[in-house]
Specification:
By secondary structure, the chain is α/β, with parallel strands linked by helices. The chain contains 10 helices and 10 strands. Strands 6-7-8-3-9-10 form a 6-stranded mixed beta sheet, sandwiched between helices. It has a 4-stranded antiparallel beta sheet with strand order 2-1-4-5, with helices on one face. Adenosine-5'-triphosphate binds next to strand 2 and helix 1. Keywords: ATP-binding, Cell membrane, Membrane, Nucleotide-binding, Transport.
Length: about 270
């Protein structure tokens, strides 16, 4: 658990005149849930998008399993074992849950076009393996009842779990979760916390997430990094970070976030 899977060193990102991320360093250890928090505009999404290769850093380096991640084009990240979910769910709405999950397996396809056209033994065996993996994920996230339903007809909370399932079907080492609780009610957020803990304990997947809901953050995170105005202001356990004076100060003015912090501290 102490071995870093990902290391960000002195990363900065500038968008024109805005320094969105300013000299940020951290590492994510294998097997942990590492969470980025901070008020709006703190730079969390920008850091997240650097790791999922949507942006390039203006300065600094990010290594993943010892290799420079910033040299990798965005379409290659799934191949090295990085999967992500989106704040606004991105699924094929008019396909079933099962089909969405099978699509999530495409990074593991190693059979050629000729073999696929003639559905050779190798293709049949690969197809069976893909289905088995998908069924395992369906069982893990308790999606049996939804497996043959169209995504378009599912409640929002279930779609969020399907998106998580699709990311897991790629068999990631690092799972990037972009605000997993956004749009969920309290009960669904509790379920999400349960799935994240299960993913960590059952599958040993390392999780890096951006999250606003402090209850979820406290429940699932091993370590938390707090940012404000592009800079790191605190890092440590959820409790250490939430009671850090710089964090409390950064949240002042965003009343909802402060009350949520206080509720957590009082708990
Ligand atoms: N593509 C972009 N072009 C220009 N400025 C950007 C871009 N993306 C982010 N920014 C700016 O960078 C800063 C950090 O934004 P970022 O979205 O990373 O913050 P955040 O912590 O994720 O906020 P939120 O919680 O509101 O999503 C903000 O000032 C934002 O306006």
């Amino acid at each position: 658990m102490n071995d870093p899977l990902l290391t960000a060193k002195n990363i900065s990102v500038r968008f024109g005149g805005v320094l969105a991320v300013n000299d940020v360093s951290f590492d994510v250890k294998r097997g942990e849930v590492f969470t980025l928090i901070g008020p709006n505009g703190a730079g969390k999404t920008t850091v997240f998008n650097l790791i999922s290769r949507i942006y390039n850093p203006t300065q600094g380096s990010i290594t993943y399993e010892g290799e420079e991640l910033t040299a990798l084009p965005p379409h290659r990240i799934a191949r090295v074992g990085i999967a992500r979910t989106f704040q606004n769910i991105e699924l094929f709405e008019h396909a079933t849950v099962l089909h969405n999950l099978l699509i999530g397996r495409h990074t593991h396809r190693s059979t050629g076009l000729f073999a696929e056209m003639f559905f050779t033994g190798k293709v049949r065996a690969a197809e069976r393996a893909h289905r088995e993996k998908v069924e395992q994920v369906i069982d893990l996230l308790n999606l049996q009842k939804a497996r043959d339903l169209l995504v378009a007809g599912l409640p929002y909370g279930v779609r969020k779990v399907v998106e998580l399932a699709r990311a897991l079907c790629t068999e990631p080492k690092l799972l990037l979760l972009d605000e997993p609780s956004s749009g969920l009610n309290v009960e669904e957020t509790d379920d999400m916390a349960f799935w994240i803990q299960d993913i960590k304990h059952e599958l040993g997947v390392t999780v890096l997430m951006v999250e606003h809901d402090m209850t979820l953050v406290s429940k699932v995170s091993d370590r938390v990094l707090a940012m404000n105005q592009g800079e790191v202001i605190a890092m440590g356990t959820p409790r250490e970070v939430q009671s850090h004076p710089a964090v409390i100060e950064a949240y002042l003015g965003t009343v909802d976030d402060v009350s949520s912090l206080r509720r957590e501290l009082a708990a």
